[in-house]
Amino acid sequence: MISQLISLYTEKFIRAGKVSKTLYRFDAVIGFWGAPNIERNLLLPEYSPDEKVVKHNDDGNRDIPFQLKGGEQSVVCIGGSHTWGGGVNAEQRYSDILREKTGRNVVNLGHASLGIDQVCLAILEKSKKFNPRVIVIEQYPWAVIRILNNYVNGYLKPVFSLDQSGSLKLKKVPNYARFKLFRQMLGSFYSYKKELNEFRGGIEIVNNYDPMTDPIFLYWKCGHYDYLYALLEKILIVIRDHCLQNNIQLIFALGAIYQQFQKASPSDLVDYDLPRKRLMAILDEIGVAYVDMTDPMLNEHSDESPVIFKDGHINEKGNKVFAEILQGKMKERGWL
Predict the structure, then answer these.
(1) Domain of life, per the record (predicted)?
(2) Each residue of 11-29: pLDDT tens digit?
(3) Coil/strand/helix, residue 223
(4) Residue 1 lies in a domain
(5) Range of the domain at 148
């Protein structure tokens, strides 16, 4: 059973089986990754009444083939389903718009439901091939919760944790996780263990989950997530240090929270910006650049001309906003 903490829109995305069962396969490092050299026509009615073509290259990414020449460098964009392009054609994504506008080699390594832990490992292991000059990490602030999930998309994940001294440890994906039956058995155990830990912390979200009052937005539940943010900081430091050691420029693109487009918070004790503020505080503390898309996205959004689909994924207009803001920020820093 997949944890109810998977967001409302991602839950629909995954449980429909339209992505995980047709586009992904076991990956010994990340847990799951795109199957290479496939093409599918997907109908995702929560986004569009029209089928979208999803085509993977040799690397299992929804992108054009990439073979850099000589010492060529690239801009690597990585994140979850917003970067992957839920509901839009490949050429409508912010990564592809950046490629067209800048003339640079822009690589898209986005995959649905990737957590920042998997993003970290993908940067360490899969981005080398593209000799990145810049890495853009698109992070939906709510989705930091995924580092507590051991089982996503029907696949087991690598697991980061903190030992008693606060040092970061990594438990790799076991070899037997390539077999579906073992994944399901161990995944059910991990989900139960996580839900039990939440229950002990006074959090019950298995039944009657309401995304507008998700516990991660509740001030009186902040203490329960202290471990999450401590773990997150250690993972982000690994990414930062890797980029510093390899002369790679790093920037986070923080998307607007779905709930902020819906209605006002029901209470002063419910803050939809809470995960963003805690994430930005960590990035400030460790000296990592970021651009906050909240105000630009909310300012460009209207009922007549939205920047998101009904489920929260950024639409074609939202991708254009992302691309414009990112291009301006990278140009301002002299990275383009």
Answers:
(1) Bacteria
(2) 343 333 445 557 999 999 9
(3) helix
(4) no
(5) 8-332
